[in-house]
Hints:
This protein is an alpha/beta fold. The protein has helices at 21-32, 39-49, 55-78, 95-104, 118-131, 143-154, 177-189; strands at residues 9-14, 36-38, 83-86, 108-114, 167-170. The protein has a 5-stranded parallel beta sheet, with helices on both faces.
Amino acid sequence: MVTQQPWPVVVVVSGPPAAGKTTVAQAMGQALGFPVLSKDDIKETLMDNLAWTDRASSMALGKAAIDLLFRWIAVEIAAKRSLIAEMNFHAHLDPPKFVALRKRMPCRFVQVHCTAPKDVLIERYQTRAASGARHPGHFDDATEVQGSIVERLDQGEWAPLQIAGPLIHGDPAVWDFDRILSELRTAIDRPED
């Protein structure tokens, strides 16, 4: 059980595609009783209701989903509710957004960064794309998308975010979830430095 916090806690689940972020975020949300806000959930809702025909329109909806995700995070913080925010946050573009949130409203961040070796991530991504399980609007099976993933991994685009707060880092496929959950609870319950 997580104790009541004076400031809302935002558990930021970050990492590259196919690292296990969604699975981890959902399990943590259930264990902690925190709502899980996911960029992909928002994007897929937009794709189900708005026109998308190609990669460019999918990317435009993805940008809108990111904007909505940060807006929703702000609404939850303003209501003093803790939450989990999950997406493949950009290591260079997204930290200033978290800093701005914290300047506007008191909150704390705990980051859970999911990753794996590059070859494992690529294999997982290709397996997921071939499964057809994700919304087709993600264009996961497109060759240029898969090439872009490799390039962006090499550039460190999905490295841990430089934001204030504790960092839990590793490959969820080899984690002892109960131990990680215990670390997360400890980080959440720790008073602000």
